[in-house]
Amino acid sequence: MNRSASNPTGVLRESASLEVYLLGTVDFDAALHLQQRLADELRDRSDTRGALILCEHPPIVTIGREGAPGDLSLEPGELIARQIPVRWIGRGGGVVVHVPGQLAVYPIVPFERLKLSPVDLRTRLEETIVRTCDDLKLPAFHRPEYAGLWCRTGKLAEIGLSVRSGVSEHGAFLNVAPDLDFVRIAKAPAGERITSLAAERHSGTLMHTVRSAVIRHFAELLGYEQQHLYTGHPSLRRTRIRVPLHA
Questions:
Q1: What is the pTM of this model?
Q2: What element of type H or E holds 83?
Q3: Which end of the chain is more exposed for a tag (fewer CB within 10 A), N or C?
């Protein structure tokens, strides 16, 4: 695996490898802009080069195509009072409450050139999370009736992809060690609860360990033998927004 502190040009090199961006905490809109920029670049290519963004977000609620405001335990006025933005997003999946400690996994890959269908890509993304949890000795599984990944006692991750012109955007949101009181303002299906790797393992769970496992399993499942790691991108528009978790 090749490593680089940054991608100085922002130009994707010619080869069938995976460009991995480890971005730390990034505002949701900044990450969305970067996804769209990378997706546009990939659509102009003819090879199987892909990108993978791994980051965390300041507090924000996003609602996918299968979600509804009723999936939140707080009323709109309470969200406004707590200064928690709410965004409707054209991805699969339902409501996701983002917060530091939750790992956002955004695969931007030309799935058609990889000879995959959208369902194949989703299955591989789910399996990436399952294998990552297995590495941490925590069995996880998919429930066909619901979006996301689960463990014995609750929901660990949401899966919500979008696809356009043969390239994927959005992805998976894995609760590593977030503030669960905040994350649980989203209601899990069937009255179950939302949980995290740290809560289920009853021990410290390091974000960099989880990131490394996600990169390894995702690259293996999609056949990327080379990965190049970066900590920035010229198109990333970082801003600093401090939002309180509680009123």
A1: 0.90
A2: none
A3: C
Q: What is the DSSP annotation of 142-188?
A: E-TTSSSEEETTEEEEEEEEEEETTEEEEEEEEESS--HHHHTTBPP
The answer to the question of residue 142 being in a domain is: yes
218 contacts 124 by C-beta, under 8 angstroms:
yes
Q: How far apart are CA 24 and CA 74, in angstroms?
A: 28
Cβ–Cβ < 8 Å for 34, 7: no
| Pick from 52, 184, 162: nearest CA to 107 | 52
* Dihedral over alpha carbons 231, 35, 148, 176 (to 10 degrees): 20
What are 129-164's pLDDT values in tens digits? Answer: 999 999 999 999 998 888 799 999 999 999 999 999
In 3-state terms, what secondary structure has residue 12? coil
| 176: its two tokens | 């590593």
CATH number of the domain encompassing residue 183 = 3.30.930.10
- Read out DSSP for 91-139? SSS-EEEE-TTEEEEEEE--TTTTT--HHHHHHHHHHHHHHHHHHTT--
Residue 86 within any structural domain of the chain? yes
208 closest CA partner among 58, 57, 56: 56
What's the domain count of the chain? 1
Per DSSP bridges, beta strands 102-108 and 149-151 are unpaired
